[in-house]
Design a protein that fits this description.
heterodimer, A: about 100 residues, alpha+beta, four-stranded mixed sheet, 4 strands, B: Aminopeptidase, five-stranded parallel sheet
Chain lengths: ~100, ~325
């Protein structure tokens, strides 16, 4: 999928994450701030990258403000932001690229 | 319970204003969206608002702090901004709130005793400075050169703007020209930029930049764009001048700022006055250049727009260069 326009998903509340995506010319520009960056920074990056890969997103500027979200939450927020950037709100591929 | 409005009206707005007053904040009339969290008795316990790309009037009742309500409010406002396509967001707050907003991933641009000005990009301002340096020829960044600056909206570019640039160019080795990026003017920012560039091509040593969000923008100087609605005493432009003087000018070696005298408009008049007070403290001289008069009277962009509406092309032609005249005629067709 392509990032067509800026989009955001999630919140800044505890145990959640706010994920924002913006169009980017080439590659993935990843920025993370997290309350647990020292403990889980690499893990969060891995989950985000895997999710983008699964959605075939190759070019994106993605910012994650993590407030201690679980992996499943992170995945869901990334998926939601990417689909919002495509204005796709129906016929979502549940069980397909959305796990 | 959540109460939201684009913006709130009537009794709900009154309620919000009262709450803000209690929190020592003032409701801004330019606000386009507000959200409030209510308790079981329908009293406001937390709130936040949006105007353009600025998040403002954010407050949480003293008895409800520590519950993460500011996170809820901010998430909602950020989501609203993204849906409007406004990616780059700013916050004005009191310096004591710095930690709270840093936790919510906002980053300081500039701070004084009264105000803290933040953005949601970790290196947004630094990148803007780098971009301006990239746009500048290396000779203009060497020390010992006399560098000037002009900030203009050019709505549209007139012979008055041209005169100001000529004067600045004659007095300096290089002149940085910042054209406002705000989208609310009659002529789109890209076109205003192009007209200023085309209309002053023969003037030596001008370096053009887009003013972006950091010079006279909805974020740094919101009242500039509501000149007719705002009392001059509420111009609120000190931070814009400070940001220019403290962070932008030194990066480019600017030591002079040129402006046209402002006989009529209250808000712009106060802006000039504020520059006169603040800039010298940072080693920058403010040069006020008297406005040019020609056969058509004092040249002013608002008079040009007025004449254009009345299709008085002869009058328009007396005040603008040919490049602008041709553009305006095409626009009218």
């Amino acid at each position: 999928m392509e990032i067509l326009k800026p989009a955001a998903a999630g919140t800044l509340e505890s145990s959640d994450a706010m994920v924002t995506v913006e169009p980017c010319e080439e590659g993935i520009d990843f920025e993370l701030s997290s309350t647990v960056i020292h403990q889980y920074g690499n893990e969060i990056k891995k989950v985000v990258m895997e999710t983008l890969d699964r959605l075939s997103v190759q070019n994106a500027k993605i910012t994650v403000v993590d407030k201690g979200a679980l992996n499943c939450t992170l995945k869901a927020r990334v998926e939601c932001a990417v689909f919002r950037s495509n204005d796709q709100k129906e016929n979502l591929p549940w069980g397909g690229v959305i796990e | 319970m959540i109460l939201a409005g684009n913006p709130l009206k009537g009794k709900e707005l009154e309620k919000l204003k009262q709450f803000l007053e209690k929190m020592d904040l003032e409701y801004d009339e330019g606000i386009e969206y507000s959200i409030c969290i209510l308790d079981d008795d329908y009293r406001i316990i937390a709130t936040g608002s949006v105007e353009e790309n600025v998040l403002k009037c954010i407050a949480v009742d003293a008895t409800c702090q520590g519950q993460g309500l500011s996170g809820t409010i901010l998430s909602n406002l950020i989501q609203y901004e993204f849906e409007k396509g406004k990616v780059h967001q700013f916050i004005y707050t009191k310096p004591k709130n710095r930690d709270m907003f840093e936790d919510l991933s906002f980053y300081t641009i500039i701070e004084n005793e009264n105000v803290l000005f933040m953005e949601n990009r970790s290196n947004g301002f630094r990148k803007y400075i780098e971009k301006m340096k990239d746009e500048t020829p290396s000779e203009a960044l060497e020390t010992g050169k006399k560098i000037g600056a002009v900030v203009m909206n050019c709505n549209p570019f007139t012979l008055g703007h041209r005169y100001l640039l000529e004067q600045a160019s004659a007095q300096c080795d290089y002149v940085h020209v910042f054209i406002l990026s705000d989208k609310r003017s009659f002529i789109p920012s890209e076109d205003r930029f192009m007209l200023a560039y085309e209309g002053s091509r023969d003037i030596a040593n001008l370096i053009f930049h887009k003013s972006s969000d950091y010079i006279i923008s909805a974020a740094t100087f919101p009242t500039y764009f509501m000149k007719d609605k705002v009392e001059a005493s509420h111009a609120n432009c000190g931070l814009d001048v400070e940001l220019f003087a403290k962070c932008i000018a030194p990066a480019l070696g600017i030591t002079e700022r040129f402006v046209g005298t402002e006989p009529d408009c209250g808000v712009t008049g106060v802006y000039n006055q504020t520059m006169k007070e603040i800039l010298p403290g940072y080693g920058i001289a403010l040069k006020e250049i008297p406005r040019v008069k020609n056969a058509a009277g004092i040249i002013s962009a608002s008079v040009v727009r007025e004449n254009m509406r009345k299709r008085k092309w002869m009058e328009v032609g007396k005040m603008v260069p040919d490049t602008t005249l041709n553009y305006l005629k095409k626009l009218q067709v």
